[in-house]
Amino acid sequence: MNKNQVYLDACKTTRMDPKVFAAMKPYFLEKYWFPGDFTNIGNEIADKLSESQEKIAKTLNAEAEEIIFTNGGTDGNNIAIKGMMYANKEKGKHFITSRISHPSVLTVFKALEEEGYKGTYISADEDGYLDLEELQDSIRQDTTLVALTHINHTLGTVQKIDEIGKILQASDHKINLFLDSCEAYTKIPIDVKKQNIDAISISGHKFNGPKGTGILYLKKGTEVERTQHGIVRMHSLKPGVVNVPGIVGITKAAELIYEDFEAHVKQLRKLQNQLYEGIKSKIDDIRLNGPRLGERSPAHLNVSFMAAEGEAIMVMLNFADVHVETGSACSSEDLKADYIMMNTGRTFEESHGSVRFTLDKFVTEKQINRTIDSLDKTITELRRRSPLSKKK
Amino acid sequence: MAIKYSEKVIEHFKNPHNVGELTEPAGFATEGSPACGDQLSVYLDIEEGTHVIKDIKFQSYGCASNIATASIITDMAKGKTLEEAKELTWKQAAEELGGLPPVKMHCSVLAVDALRSAIKNYEETHLGKQFDDSLSKSNVEKELEKIIYGKVGVDILTLKLVKYVGVDNENNIIIDLEMDEDDKFLDDVKKEIREHLAQFEKANKIEINLV
C-alpha cells in the first residue's frame, strides 16, 4: 500500500480494517462450514451468526432476530423496498421518496413504477433538508411506504428522522418508514425504536468492513414479500449461501467503531473541521455545499471552488495521490450535472466546481494537511488557466 | 470499461502550452460558458501581410481534456497562416493527443471552434470581411456539426441522428432527432443544441422532435 496516498472518498468505499480481515480469515480457511443443527461444526457457525446478529442489533437498539445479513446496501434496498410494496399492494400502491434520494433507492422505485406503482418525490431545500410539509401533504390513503436516504451522499445532510417518524406515526393508517442508512451508520446514532423506523439498509464496505456485505434491519411484524428464492439457511428474505466470513467481517467492523462510538465521531469532526478551516484560510471564493459543520455528517465535506472545474481538480489532485469526488458534469458518464446539486438550487458553475471530501477512521491530520496543500496548489494553477478568474 | 486519458492528454493537462492572454490581441474569441461546464478563450497575434499566427494564447475553464485540447490546438495553429489554421479539425486535434474518450470528444470541438472564432474575429476587425450569421438552415446545420454524440464521439450530423432541419416563416427552428427516449445522452444532446442555437437572436423558439 502506498503510505503517501490520501483517500478522501469514503462515501464511495473504504479500506478494510486489517483487524476485520484477521477476524474473517479463519472463516475462509479453517471454519468454512455452514450453520447447521446437531453437529459441532454446524453449531459453531450458527452460534457465531447469532452472536453477530446480537452485536449488530445493539448498535441500532434493535432485536437480534430483526437483523438480516445481505450482500450490501443495494441488495438490502431491493429486498426491503420491493418486498414491502408487494406485501402491501392490496392496501395501496403509492410510495413517497425524495428527488435527492440515492440512485440505489431511485432505481428500485423506477422499476416499481414500471410495474404500476405510483410515487411522490418530495423536494429538498438548499441544504438538502427534505420539505416535511410536502411529505405530510403527499400522504394518501394508498401510501404504504416512505423510503428515504438517511444522510445525503452529496451534501452530507442528516435528515430529521425523529420528525419524519412522528409524521408517519400520526397518520390514520400504517405507513412503513424505510431508510437507506449506508452513509449514516457509524456516523450518527440510530435508535430504531425511538425513531419509529421499520427498515434500514446498511453497507459493510462504507465503514472499513468487507465489500459485498450488508445489514438489513427489519422491525418484527413488518410484512415483506420474498423477492429472492432458494434454500433458506438464515432468513427467508435472503436465501442461498450464507456469507459467513462476510458476516463475521461486517460485525467486526461495526464492533471496532461502536466500542467507542463517541471518540470515533469526535475524531471525524476534528478532521472535518481541520479540512474546512484549512481550505477557507488558503483559498478564496469557495462555497460550502450542504449544512454547516456540526450539523452535517461528521465524515462529509462538499465545497465548490469558483472559476475552477471539478473534473480538472479531481484529476490534478490525483497526480498528487490525493483522491476525492466531484459533482462536475464533465466527470459523469452522461455529461449531466449532479442531480442533487441541481435539485437543491445550485448554479451549474457551483455544481461543476464542487468537490466532495469524505472521511473514515484511517484518515490522519497529516493527510488532511497534505490535502489542503495540494488543493491550494491545484486551485491556484487552475485559476491561473481560467478565463473566469480574471473577472474578480 | 473505465474511461481513460492518453498519456499525451495527461502531459498536456499537467504542463499545458500557451496558457495566458495577450494584452492587445489581433483576434480574440470566447466559446462555451460556465453553464456548459467549459469555456475557452483564444488570443491571436497575427503578422500583417503574411497572416501568419505569430503568437497564440488560451485560457480555459474546463476539465482536463478541455485544457489538453486547447494546449494542442494552439500548438498546432502557431506558425500557420490563417488559411492553414482554419483547416485544422477537431479530429486532427484529438488524433494529435493520441485519441480522446468519446464522451470527451466535444472538448476537441470546442477548442477548434474557439480557434476559428478568433480567426473570424481578426478577419472581421482587421480585414473588413463580413460573414453571414443570419438565421438560416445552413447556418443552423453548421452549429449542429459541432454537437458530439458522447456515446461514440462523433457529431450528430455525420452520424445522421438529425433527420430534418428547418427554419419556418415565424423563425422557429425545427429539428427532428432520431434518438431513443431513454438514451442517456439525449439530455446532453438537447442541451447542446439549445446552447449552440442560442446565438441566433432572431430565432423564436427551438423545437426538437424525436422521430
How would you sum up this structure, described in words?
The complex is a heterodimer of chains A (392) and B (211). Chain A has 12 helices and 13 strands. By secondary structure, chain A is an alpha/beta fold. Chain A has 2 domains: 18-258, 3-Layer(aba) Sandwich (Aspartate Aminotransferase, domain 2), CATH 3.40.640.10; 261-391, Aspartate Aminotransferase, domain 1. In chain A, β5 (143-149), α6 (161-169) and β6 form a beta-alpha-beta unit. In chain A, α1 runs antiparallel to α7, α8 packs parallel to α12 and α9 (310-319) packs across α12. The radius of gyration of chain A is 22 Å and the shape is globular. Chain A starts with 5 loop residues before the first strand and ends in a 7-residue tail after the last helix. With 211 residues, chain B is an alpha+beta fold. Chain B has 2 domains: 7-126, Sufe protein. Chain: A, CATH 3.90.1010.10; 137-210, GMP Synthetase, Chain A, domain 3, CATH 3.30.300. Chain B is built from 7 helices and 8 strands, in the order αβββαααααββββαβ. Chain B has helices at residues 7-14, 64-77, 82-86, 90-96, 105-126, 137-144, 186-197; strands at residues 27-33, 38-47, 52-61, 148-149, 154-155, 162-167, 173-177, 206-210. In chain B, the strands form 3 sheets. Chain B has a 3-stranded antiparallel beta sheet, with helices on one face. In chain B, strands 6-7-8 form a 3-stranded mixed beta sheet, with helices on one face. A two-stranded antiparallel ribbon of chain B has the order 4-5. The longest helix of chain B has 22 residues, at 105-126. The two termini of chain B are 30 Å apart. The model of chain B has no long low-confidence stretch (mean pLDDT 93). The chains are: A alpha/beta (392), B alpha+beta (211). The A-B interface holds A 307-309, 311-312, 315-316, 319, 328-331, 333-337, 347-349, 352, 384-388, 390 and B 3, 5, 13-14, 16, 19, 21, 30, 34-41, 59-64, 66-67, 103, 106, 150, 184-185, 187-188.
